[in-house]
Protein 1
Amino acid sequence: MSAREVVLGIGGGIAAYKSCELLRRLQDAGFGVTVIPTPSSLHFVGKATWEALSGRAVTTTVWERVDEVRHVHLAKVSEFNIIAPATADLIARIAHGRADDLLTNTLLASKAPTLIVPAMHPAMWANKATQSNVSLLRDRGYVVMEPDHGRLTGSDIGVGRFPETSHIVATFKEMTDKANDLSGIKVLVTAGGTREMIDPIRFIGNNSSGRQGFAIAKAAMRRGAEVTLVLANSTLPDLPGITTVRVTSADQMFAEVHSRFALCDVIAMSAAVADARPAQYSDSKIKKGSLSSIELTANKDIIASVAKDKKNQVVIAFAAETTLDIEEGERKLLAKSADILFLNDVSGSEIFGSDETQGVILTSQVSQSIERVMVDRISKDTLADLLLDQALNKLG
Ligand code: CTP
């Protein structure tokens, strides 16, 4: 077997024929590829083609070569999985943990990073069921490519086309190159928005969904880091492979970060921390007649307090502003002893809860100057990788 083993899963869509070329290009890139077609995909490209091209045995169900227990064996030896094309049905089956053919059994048994390349009719891609399955898979750490826009099999035009082979190979290479570059690195991430309780019913909170920090935690895990996520009031799920610590208030978050900071190599402080809490917490509900004002007391600045004593840790902070005030971002970078700060303009409420973001990455340089990199509408997953790339640079 070659150094980097890959499972190439083929779904039952017409784009299956394009994956013959993809298989060749993956082999050219030095991967040893085992093809697992779904039974229905054999209507488009037969077993003999895959066996001839891959030079390996090809089976589609768990009832063939039973002595090898192929799904468990392939899940163990494969370092990466790539599913191309992924039909709406295959995406739904993976999202729901189904195991009704060899491919879905193998994926369920696999811990390897997986790239999913969808291809289907635009209406099927746009359908809420498919979109919700895709976000579920992304939340679980799968990389799901966006299909291309263009002419489909029939006369329809829209988003759903199988991406160009070169684009798929480049995305896959990016994933595999980064797969272990953070191995041995401990990454501490905070995410979500803290809640400062006023009484048992009411709290001071904010709009943060936790998505950016979640994206950093997932990317760091995918890249081999040991990840702890301190998550405040988020509905996002616990992820296998990430230690998730759930907190409510800024004080609780401070305690969790403080006790872990000395042992981490990188901290990404993406949580939206309330700057103040009610001076008095009322054990019983405050009646509306007495609720004309709330006296506040300041919370500690978590990142500034821990980062001022940093040793070799790389500190990534965030700043959410309603105008893209770069000078203010630079001031915060220095005030919080951060090495990297992502400044985003959250006006218009397009960023909170969205999968996309935009802003400026500010990075402190050895020369004391601050480098500015403008980031224009990218996914929070892509930003996560960019920030981790910068952190890795700083770690040397
Ligand atoms: N932060 C923190 N502790 C706080 C407040 C903020 O660690 N009590 C962190 C945030 O997680 C973020 C960075 O500091 O990484 C900047 O947060 P931001 O709310 O933009 O800045 P503030 O310092 O709160 O300043 P202001 O509210 O005046 O803009």
Protein 2
Amino acid sequence: MSTKIKTFVEYQQQYELSISNPEAFWADKADSFVWRKKWDKVLEWNFEDPNIQWFINGKLNITENCIDRHLSTKGDKTAIIWEPNNPDTPVRKLTYNELYLEVSKFANVLKNNNVKKGDRVCLYMPMVPELAIAVLACARIGAIHSVVFAGFSSNSLADRIKDSKVSLVVTSDGAYRGNKSMGIKKIVDEAIVSCPTVEKVIVYQHTNEPVHLVEGRDVWWTEEMNKVSSTCEPEIMDSEDPLFILYTSGSTGTPKGVLHTTGGYMVYVDYSFQNIFQVEDNSVYWCTADIGWITGHSYLTYAPLLAGATTIIFEGVPTFPDASRFWQVIDKHNVTHFYTAPTAIRSLMSFGLEPLENSKLDSLKVLGSVGEPINEEAWHWYHNHVGKGNCPIVDTWWQTETGGILISPLAGITPTKPSYATLPLPGVQPIIVDTDGNELLGNNVEGNLCMKFPWPSIIRTTYGDHERCRQNYFSTYKGLYFTGDGCRRDEDGYYRILGRVDDVINVSGHRMGTAEVENAINEHDDVIESAVVGYPHDIKGQGIYAFVICDNTTKNVETLRVEITNVVAKIIGPIAKPDRIQVVRGLPKTRSGKIMRRILRKVAEGDISSLGDTSTLLDPTVVDDIIKGALVPLKA
Ligand code: WTA
């Protein structure tokens, strides 16, 4: 395993090296893995097509690196701890030996059900070890996994299945979430009605609720596992063979399938994990993200296993049975590294300090934050009350498209600063540009965050539509990867992420395209048109504010709101439900018909002091009416 950076000076030296000779730098990192055949060339790239290849012609299997290579030294070490939704349900632990057997067996199950290298397999499951096992089993045989968060609706699931022509779905009967149990298989059944490519469904029994099995299509996980042997030779993959697709929202249209490949992804997630979190052999690492998001892929599943660490899979929610659950679990398993989202911290802050009183939290060494900007208040609360002032906070900035963390402190090694992601990792070359694409040099600058050089886990394409990838990320500024985030570099050279500058909003750390939510709202029969913007929300970071024009003026507004909310939940999922819905008679449009979102954002923020010139609007009086009907107190 590659050596970890241990001092700030070493960080600076490594950073220099990674810029002056990136290929030698990354070849050295890649050397510590098991390759069936070494690469011929480290890197080829251009950001015009874009065409990015790392470790060209290298052959490997990522699961051999996550599991097999640890068996001689760590076979009996716990790889996965499963903490169930209900604290009274027994914990499950899997050693690396056991994980090897389960993954090999499920890989054989997939093969028995006709899955071959390159086929797409969709995983729609609760947070049980079998989800991680299924992810790894796909990788074992070279099938491309597409995990869909089990909070998405059957519509969203169907869109994702269709987009990547999935042939097999793995799911479970149901899922627990707090004091609720939800059907999962029935959502899959609804989705598959419109998905002719799906030939097989494997069902893991978890909640034991009754489900309907379709003859010839649906099979039980356990029965299939009993039919197969417990060895499965890993498929030898090219470094640039696809590993997975993960759908994420953008500023336009439907979610896109971000595609990551094998070799570069493996090298980068391992390198970043080891250096940022600084896990030791006896560490217990807990990332609270769902495997359905990129954080759950990279830093709950792949990276901790690549590092031979112990990783926790938590099925439940922070507030069940009560708001002390996180702290109880930390004590129960002696968690050393805890990685969660600012939303969770802010929500737990709102319960005061009492829920923390019965927990020692003295096993903790490192705290992490991910998914959205962490405000100073939440940062200090996390630092003082969870970390007891002793644990560095790594505020990790990255994206589904970046595959791994690009800007973050290295725990205990580089400085931290509240609400700052601080410094780029070695190999990462951020640049801040103005709206015309001019580089803003020096410190104390603010603009749009781009990358000028590829790192090994960068997005390769958007599945089935390379042009969309080019347009979205590589065309705004020539020769640069554009993140969609605003960013400030302060007087010390530290980076602070300011949030999205495009039409993407970040609700409780979940990315949502405003266009996507609008499309869902417009499905309501009475809605003529809608415009959605984000606004600052105390707990969620951003809330969803929808302005809608309806043609049924006799309907009660409250009824409309409930109906529209239900439509959005049905079409996208409960995470996309608008927090506020204002019925309006018109939207502020320019003469060419473009909605002036800036005005709507200002109203949603409650600040109408600087609406700017509205006289160029098609009908300036709609703004007055919108202001009159605003659902927030306004300051002028
Ligand atoms: C935001 C999540 C501030 C950012 C890993 C980015 C952050 C988007 C941070 C990606 C952070 C993520 N500080 N903002 N530490 N981490 N973001 O694809 O706007 O779900 O573009 O990946 O989340 O969201 P995604």
